[in-house]
Automatic annotation (TrEMBL), chain A:
Originating species: Merops nubicus (Northern carmine bee-eater)
EC numbers for this chain: 4.1.3.4
Lineage: Eukaryota, Metazoa, Chordata, Craniata, Vertebrata
Reaction(s) catalysed by this chain's protein: (3S)-3-hydroxy-3-methylglutaryl-CoA = acetoacetate + acetyl-CoA
Protein name: Hydroxymethylglutaryl-CoA lyase, mitochondrial
Primary location recorded for the protein, binned into one broad class: mitochondrion
Quaternary context: Homodimer; disulfide-linked. Can also form homotetramers.
SUPFAM superfamilies registered for this protein in UniProt: Aldolase
Source organism superkingdom: Eukaryota
Enzyme class: lyase
UniProtKB/TrEMBL annotation, chain B:
InterPro entries: Aldolase_TIM, HMG_CoA_lyase_AS, HMGL, PYR_CT
Domain Pyruvate carboxyltransferase: 1-184
Entries under SUPFAM superfamilies matching the protein: Aldolase
A single Gene Ontology CC term: cytosol
Molecular functions per Gene Ontology: hydroxymethylglutaryl-CoA lyase activity; metal ion binding
Organism: Merops nubicus
Record's protein name: hydroxymethylglutaryl-CoA lyase
Catalytic reaction list: (3S)-3-hydroxy-3-methylglutaryl-CoA = acetoacetate + acetyl-CoA
The organism's place on the tree of life at top rank: Eukaryota
GO BP, sorted A to Z: ketone body biosynthetic process; L-leucine catabolic process
Length: 277, 212
């Protein structure tokens, strides 16, 4: 069941009206691995690109990078994992090999003046390896940062982390990468996302990834579901007095749109609560 | 008492409107009624716990002042309640409002006599509980499978799920002495009996990855 391209384009256009400044638009991965993203070029070319908003795309290799730039992408993301097994299962190579491939992307990106963001998966646990050492996360993060990524997004891919492990992991990573270059990407599979994000904020992290209506997961991590819902995150940030510039109502409307289009319930509790009143 | 209870709880609200709607009298009147309960309890050596509802917001009044919460808490504590459980009845609170409210209440009541009772209606419960723990609160109310709400607070659903709280406390290295699997089994039992899905994400995740 593949989401129609016009629905994706409308979703991104609606998100562009909410005040969000970075919207990850699509992924230039091979349609063989992720057929749901086969329309990446069409999406990239079809969305309204508002000034002041960045629309980064995922590029797993040089070929994907070249296609992304040809399609109009002005920022890209690469990804690695703090787990060998996860890397093998996800992109069919070792961590070392994956970073080598990215070397080619980094060189091309530098030449084209395209900023690159780096994702590290499994930072608080891996569906195959189990526990992940904070030192390993720091090592992979440092490599990607040294390679030229302007920001490293640390992902709790299966949502297994807690404020305890988040603190431990960030403490290790912050020894190698400046906190201003760090972001967190928490999954809410065990309901821990907002608590984990709060800890990250307390430690100085100021970039948080989220997904409207809490959509999305990872096809390669069995049982993994649910990014943290942007609505619930913004609700918390508002309560903390942090100015996000995001219009929560417009965000909820966007969530309603995409959930109707997908014929599914939202994963956002804020959205659920507001609809009831 | 006749049925064998050896501890009881009384409750008040930090909101006049909620008090009126919930038990049909003012905060003052409700506290007067409780004085009788607390007096009898003292004679029989029965500990009494006090609940304060709407500590972070009211479905009728909206914003609730931390000073009001502190005032009601202090009255219940002075009457003889050994512990005051501060309830975010409709789950509207955030770490920001939780911190402000606790700061006010902690001026009147010792930390060791405080507990938090967070609802997860807006998904904020664990973050709010974490904030309370960071401020020294050591007693947290929850409900297995996240069951329960309040019939008098429209739209209110979902106590925070005990399983999810335990998961977080375990991750923080706090020794709860609670067996998470047994809690999940209890949750499974009651959800089956009620024919409803659990509100606990930990239980859902464990089910999805075949851990149960």
């Amino acid at each position: 069941n593949i989401v129609p391209t016009p629905v994706k384009i409308n979703l991104i256009n609606m998100l562009s009206e909410t005040g969000l400044q970075v919207i990850e638009a699509t992924s230039f991965v091979s349609p063989k691995w992720v057929p749901q993203m086969a329309d990446h070029t069409e999406v990239m070319q079809g969305i309204n690109k508002l000034p002041g908003i960045s629309y980064p795309v995922l590029t797993p290799n040089l070929k994907g990078f070249q296609e992304a730039v040809a399609a109009g992408a002005k920022e890209v993301s690469i990804f690695g994992a703090a787990s060998e097994l996860f890397t093998k299962k996800n992109i069919n190579c070792s961590i070392e090999e994956s970073l080598e491939r990215f070397g080619a992307v980094m060189t091309a990106a530098r030449a084209a003046d395209v900023p690159v963001r780096g994702y590290v998966s499994c930072v608080l646990g891996c569906p195959y390896e189990g526990k992940i050492s904070p030192a390993k996360v720091a090592e992979v993060s440092k490599k990607m940062y040294s390679m030229g990524c302007y920001e490293i997004s640390l992902g709790d891919t299966i949502g297994i982390g807690t404020p305890g492990s988040m603190k431990e992991m960030l403490t290790a990573v912050m020894k190698e990468v400046p906190v201003g270059a760090l972001a967190v990407h928490c999954h809410d599979t065990y309901g821990q996302a907002l608590a984990n994000i709060l800890v990250a904020l307390q430690m100085g992290v100021s970039v948080v990834d989220a997904s409207v209506a809490g959509l999305g997961g990872c096809p390669y991590a069995q049982g993994a579901s649910g990014n943290v819902a942007t609505e619930d995150l913004v609700y918390m940030l508002n309560g903390l007095g942090i100015h996000t510039g995001v219009d929560l109502q417009k965000l909820m409307d966007t969530g309603t749109f995409i959930c109707n289009a997908l014929n599914r319930r939202t994963n956002s509790k804020v959205s659920q609560a507001c609809c009831r009143l | 008492i006749a049925a064998g209870a050896t501890e009881v709880s009384v409750f008040g609200a930090a909101s006049e409107a909620f008090s009126k709607m919930n038990i049909n009298c003012s905060i003052d009147e409700s506290i007067e009624k409780f004085e009788e309960v607390v007096k009898s309890a003292r004679h029989m050596n029965i500990p009494v716990r006090g609940y304060v509802s709407c500590a972070l917001g009211c479905p009728y009044e909206g914003s609730i002042r931390p000073a009001k919460v502190a005032e009601v808490s202090k009255r219940l504590y002075s009457m003889g309640c050994y512990e005051i459980s501060l309830g975010d009845t409709i789950g509207v609170g955030t770490p920001g409002s939780m911190k402000r409210m606790l700061e006010a209440v902690m001026k009147e009541i010792p930390l060791s006599a405080l507990a938090v009772h967070c609802h997860d209606t807006y998904g904020q419960a664990l973050a709010n509980i974490l904030t309370a723990i960071q401020m020294g609160v050591a007693v947290v109310d929850s409900s297995v499978a996240g069951l329960g709400g309040c019939p008098y607070a429209k739209g209110a659903t979902g106590n925070v799920a005990t399983e999810d709280v335990i998961y977080m406390l375990n991750g923080l290295g706090i020794n709860t002495g609670v067996n998470l699997y047994k809690v999940m089994e209890a949750g499974n039992f009651i959800c089956t009996a009620l024919n409803k899905t659990t509100n606990s994400k930990v239980a859902q995740a464990s089910f999805n990855t075949g851990t149960i």
